[in-house]
Structure formats: structure tokens, C-alpha cells
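hey can u run this one w/ 4'-deoxy-4'-aminopyridoxal-5'-phosphate bound, need the C-alpha cells asap thx
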Amino acid sequence: MEIKKLFIPGPTYVHPDVLAKMATPPIGHRTAEASALQRGISEKLQQLMYTTNKIVLSTSSGTGLMEGAIRSLTQKKAIVFSVGAFGKRWWELARLNGIEADLHEEEPGHPTMPETVEHYLKTGQYDVVTVTHNETSTGIQNPIESIAEVVSKYPDVIWLVDTVSSLGGVKVEVDRLGIDVCISSSQKALALPPGLALASISPKAEERLKAIGPRGYYLDLGTLVKYVDEKDYQYSCTPSIAHMFALDFQLDRILKEGLENRFIRHVEMAEYMINWASHFYRVFPQPGFESMTVTCIENTRKTDIGALNKSLRERGMLISNGYGSLKDKTFRIGHMGDLTLEDMEALTEAMEEILGLN
Ligand code: PMP
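ok here u go:
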């Protein structure tokens, strides 16, 4: 049976019209049309990200730009705040690239709190801080607003934020929050196929990039910015033009839906899933820090998630088991991108029927 709706927390469901744009015949990546395409994408992303900062695209998944960012921007040492596997990934990326970094991990289910960030930043040891806005492995949305207040007190610190599974579903006001590098991927709340990453780069980050100079080639953030500046929104290497056509089209759809409407739709889906999960199971994150795009559910009924997914597959649906060591102890349901409340209702109805819940 073909899976019609993916309820895994990425890659997520792609609308057929968006998918069709991936089949647009390629254009040359050194042409005026390519520049115009990327300039248009940047302008639309600036609206979605509430920023006037420069936008770079990368033909990689989000991890590519995370690696590029922490490597290109850390002069002294980075402090990495982790509330799950993807938070910790920043630290692994730093370590494997020979970049000095410390890791602060929270207790399972707990968010990154502003006072913890303050505790580290006030030591003066760090010039880069990384925070995960929405941790997909544990379903936690971190309190980015209050963290922003702390980070703003340290003007020499560059703030990298992972919005891989929130941008396009949750409001991220890059300029108001003072995020220096805000990174996302195509396959989550933006609802495109995987394979493209994007980031906004603040003037402060640009200065740091110039001061440090290139580190690496393909993922060097300074090189990506330089090409946008000097080569009229082009790339150092051949990008996935197919993704760009689809992204340009999808951003039009997103803006047409209306950003506020889109964010409200995500809140409605999240509230519905949190209520459902609280009724039949237990929600994994601490109350008040639940993600608006993925619900991580404690498997209090010891449900066989593999068997559940087998039955869901027969109905053209799929959810996710817990991530890493949380496998079978938790499971996750994505509600992001172009999914709707009706889709979530159809999913829970199917799960209740399969599991005999009432
Ligand atoms: N951060 C978060 C919060 C994620 O959910 C993911 C992917 N699941 C990543 C980073 C890594 O992104 P990508 O798979 O696009 O490299």
C-alpha cells in the first residue's frame, strides 16, 4: 500500500503540486534566471523568518549548515545546549571538526532554560552558543524568547539556532530575537522533499566569518555568503535547482495561506495531539514545553509500535518510533507542514481502531 500521509516528524507529507515542481526542467546555475530564482526565494524566506538578514541555501540537509556554522564561526569555544539527539549533534559536529565546544545536556523531557544559558555565558569562555528551537527526538520546544533575552546581553557571542523542525510551522522572529544564524531543512514544516537546507546570517555573523576566513570548502558559511553577495545570489557549486523551483512555489503557497493562519493551524494540530496523547498515554516533555510540530508520547501502554505501524501502513499512514534510546519507550507523531487537523483526526481514529482504545 502506498503511504499517502507521512506522520513521521520528517520527511513529512508533500503536496502533489509542490512535488510536481521538482520535475521542472533544469536551468543553468550561472544564468540570470538562476539568480532571479534565488533572489526571489531569499525575499520570501526573509518574510517567513521576520528578518532582513542575508539568506543562504545549501544543497545538503540541515546538518550540513549546522556543521558549516559551528565550524566557520567558533573562534574561542562553543557552548552547546542539548535537550535530545539533535541538540547533541552540534557538539559532535564541533568535536569531529576539531572545534572547541562544551556540552550541557538536560534531564530527559526538560527544556533549555535561560538561567542555564546565563550560567555558562557569564563565564566569558564562549563566543558561540547553540540552541535547538524544536527538538524532534524528544518533542520539546525550548523557550526561545526568554533565552533570547539572556543571549542579547552578550554581544560578542554568536547565536546559532536550529529551527529544522519548526520553521514554517512556528513563528521564528529572527531579527527581534537576535538570532545570528537560523538554520532549517526543507523536509519538515516547510513540507518539501529532503535535500535542501537554508540559513539566515546576521551582519555580526558576517563580520565574524570575514575575521576567521574560510574553513572548509563546500559548507564554509563565508563562501556561501560571498557568492550571494558577489555572484548575484548564486552558489560556489551546482545546487539542486529542482528543490529551488519547489521551494519558490511552496513559499508562495505558505504566504498565500498567511503566516499567522499557518501558525494557528500548527497550534490546533498540536493541541489536538497533546490532548489525545494525554488521554490515552502521557506526553513526554515537561508541560508547557511541548512541541507544536511533533508530539513525543510516553509509551505507557507498552504498545508494539512496529505492529501499530504495520497496520497504519495498510491504511496509507506512518508514525515514528522513539528516537535512539527512547525507541519503544516513546513514539512520535509529526503534525507539521501541509498536514491538517482533519488528517490528525483520521490518524487518531485509525490508531484507536487498531489498538482498541476507547
Ligand atoms: N535538528 C533537528 C531538530 C532535526 O529534527 C533534524 C532532522 N531530523 C536535524 C537537526 C538534522 O537535519 P537534517 O536531517 O536535515 O540534516
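Residues 5-12+258-355 form a domain with the Aspartate Aminotransferase, domain 1 fold (CATH 3.90.1150.10). anyway lmk if its weird
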